[in-house]
Each structure stands twice: as C-alpha cells, then as structure tokens.
Amino acid sequence: MVTKNNTVFVYVDHQQELARKRKKSFFWYQNVIASRGKQR
C-alpha cells in the first residue's frame, strides 16, 4: 500500500520470490485507523 506521500507499508523481498513482509509502519497505521486517530 502506498499513501499520497509515497509511504510504503509493505516490503517486497526481491531475493525470496517477491515475498511481502509488513513493516512496523503497517502496524502503526493499522492502529491509527482502528483508533480513528486517537493515541492509545
């Protein structure tokens, strides 16, 4: 997923058959969405 400012939340490993790995920012953004922007 890429946002307006080109923030990428998933890493694509080109050495391992294009395996996709979620970055820490993925989980951070998931929490932002779940909390509707409120800090937990």
Please mark out the parts with pLDDT under 50 across 5 or more consecutive residues, or reply none.
none
Strands of the largest sheet, in order across it? 1-2
What general form does the structure show? elongated
Number of beta-strand segments: 2
* Major sheet attributes: 2 strands, antiparallel
User: What is the first-to-last residue Cα distance?
Assistant: 23 Å
- Structural class based on helices, strands and sheet pairing: alpha+beta
Fraction of residues in β-strands: 15-25%
What is the typical, i.e. mean, pLDDT?
Answer: 84
Order of helices and strands: EEH
Primary descriptors:
single chain; 40 residues; alpha+beta; two-stranded antiparallel sheet; 1 helix; 2 strands; 20% strand; elongated; Cryptic 6-phospho-beta-glucosidase
Task: Please give a structural write-up.
This protein has one helix spanning 24-34; strands spanning 10-13, 19-22. It has 40 residues and is of the alpha+beta class. It is elongated and about 40 Å long. It has a two-stranded antiparallel sheet with strand order 1-2. It has one helix and two strands, in the order ββα.
Q: How is the topology of this model organized?
A:
Blueprint: E1 10-13, E2 19-22, H1 24-34
